[in-house]
Amino acid sequence: MGLLHDLRYGKGSFLAASAAVALAIAAPLAAEVRLPHGFGDHAVLQRDAPIHIWGWSDPREHITVQFHAQTRQTAANEYGEWSLWLAPESAGGPYTMSVKGEGSGEASGAPVSFSDLLVGDVWFASGQSNMEFPLRGFPGNAVLKDGDKETANATLPQVRLLRIDHKASNSPLDDVGGAWTTCTPQTAAEFSAVAYFFGREIQQKEHVPIGLIDSTWGGTPIEAWTSLDALSADSSLMPVFASWAHFADQQARLPLVIAEEKREDAAAAQAQQPKPAHPWRPAPESWQPAALFNGMIAPLTPYSIKGVIWYQGETNSAPERAPLYEKLFAAMIAGWRSSWQQGQFPFLFAQISSFNSPGESWGLLRDQQRRTLSVAGTAMAVTLDVGDPGNVHPSDKQTVGARLALAALATVYGKQLEFSGPLFRQAVRENGGMRVYFDHAAGLRAHGDSLIGFELAGPDRKFYPAKAVIGAASGISSGNGSVVVTSERVSDPVYVRYAWPGATTANLYNSADLPASTFTSE
Questions:
Q1: How many domains does the chain have?
Q2: Pick from 189, 172, 65: which is nearest to 117 by CA?
Q3: What is the pLDDT of residues 80-122, one digit of tens each?
Q4: Are residues 232 and 305 in the same domain?
Q5: How far apart are CA 226 and CA 334, in angstroms?
Q6: Which of 51, 110, 173, 509 has the fewest Cβ atoms within 10 angstroms?
Q7: Within 10 Å of residue 425's Cβ, how many Cβ atoms?
Q8: Radius of gyration for the alpha carbons in the chain, expressed in angstroms and rounded
Q9: Phi, psi at residue 142, to the nearest 5°?
Q10: How many Å apart are CA 419 and CA 405, to the nearest integer?
């Protein structure tokens, strides 16, 4: 009770109490300086770019930041928000950072300090479950190829990991849950395998520290990762909100459904029978448009990064959703770039893999992803050949990470190497067949005796399996970087497509042993 008790009940003199109040007002108070979770021990700061530092304190507090050989000062606004920029630094470390407000020090407490900071390249990894898939796999569902060996060898001092907690929000948040860690078998086991293999490859090739941020949530649609500003900027994206309304309506009776499932489980247990299978259901909040952008992307957009790697699309493969994916994906990329305010930073993505999913449009979704390559600063890793027709979570994440790293080495780090499999450029009619031209087509070849996976259609758009030959064919002129496609069932070919089924054995590659992407000329 102290001073308040003395004043209320008359204990001691009024002058003594007044003096105590005056001393309390005059004494400097420790400023409550706080930084977001993007900062912490073991963090990586982006090299060769202005370094943004921000946080919160008492209103109008004077803030001093010391990092390496730099000291910068700023003042918080009336809400206690403050922000400053450090000059670019070359790759290096470890360094320390100190952040203090006026009034902190020996008399009122130590400044906020972080140690073991590195300066290098920060890559932001996001998407749904195939990006979230950790080195330990999903127990009972999917395991990583050579998982035990990969995890045991995951001690990489120059790679640092920040795994973001799941969080959905109706409005943009200013912080996330998570903490930077060194890369060890223990921390890597819970971290995105694709991001880990990507980061490991970049670090070994570029010899700079790598920071990886894992902001992922399985079973989530792309619209949940897209800002409301981006979604509302294009009226053709309105079906997204209709889909959300339909999904939200379905949640009304969900408690009753779950209660019935629990009764079924109890009855099975009492009868000593196996538990009945129930349909998988996503967390409703994780499907709300912009909810994951608000909770897991927006808080990190002030943090300087090198670029993004992305692996998502399976949840958008329903026939009514897949045709909108290209527009949604382009809108999401533009929205992220606008929010980060770092220009057209690299955006590298994995095309969804090969999977037997009846009733869904995996071929169309993959083609929509391919078409998103028209957005500047993007590159795509094809994963058709490492899919598992019986499991939506293929075990080979090493190849996915390596192909994303290949794209980064070529398009971001300036290495002279082939980074993409053959990509559809154009299809022209030729002597009763169609000749398909490709980019990234040096050394076209089949994995196997003959090409598999091409289909032809006439004006009726009914597709039939077709014969495909690289380069010249009987009666048709030769050509480089092309495939000639014919079918006895299609006398008047107009359209050609490739690797269209959800699960496919399509086998066109280039000389870099990189597979061709799904496409349709429609």
A1: 2
A2: 65
A3: 999 999 999 999 999 999 999 985 443 344 689 999 999 999 9
A4: yes
A5: 9
A6: 110
A7: 14
A8: 28
A9: -160, 145
A10: 9
Residue 275 covered by a domain:
no
Q: Please indicate, yes or no, if residue 249 is contained in any of the structural domains.
A: no
Tokens (6 digits) for 166: 């799941």
**Do 449 and 499 belong together in one domain?**
yes
CA dist., res. 91 & res. 44, Å (int): 10
Residue 502 carries which DSSP code? S
Give the residue among 212, 220, 165, 166 at the shortest CA–CA distance from 193: 212
SS3 72: strand
> Do 373 and 451 share a domain, yes or no?
no
Q: Which of 411, 432, 458 is the last residue of a domain?
A: 411
Q: Give the residue from 155, 130, 156, 161 showing the smallest Cα distance to 144.
A: 130
Q: Is the pLDDT of residue 69 over 60?
A: yes
Q: Same domain for 230 and 331?
A: yes
User: Nearest CA to 517 among 448, 419, 428, 398?
Assistant: 419
Judge if 344 and 469 occupy the same domain.
Answer: no
Q: How many CA atoms lie within 13 A of 364 on its CB side?
A: 15
Among candidate residues 49, 42, 117, 44, the one with its CA nearest the CA of residue 89: 49
First to last CA, the chain: 79
Cis peptide before 282 (omega within 30 of 0): no
Q: In what order do the strands lie in the sheet with 463-465?
A: 463-465, 454-457, 495-498, 519-520
Q: Residue 367 and residue 497: Cα distance in Å, rounded?
A: 10
Give residue 153's domain range: 129-242+283-411
Q: Give residue-wise pLDDT tens across range 282-291.
A: 989 999 999 9
Specify if 18 maps to a domain.
no
pTM of the model: 0.90
Helix (H) or strand (E) run with residue 161 in it: strand 156-163
Q: In terms of domains, do 214 and 150 share one?
A: yes
Which tokens go with 134? 């950790």
Give dist(CA 33, CA 58) in Å, integer: 7
Last residue of a domain, one of 370, 390, 411: 411
- Position 154 in a domain: yes
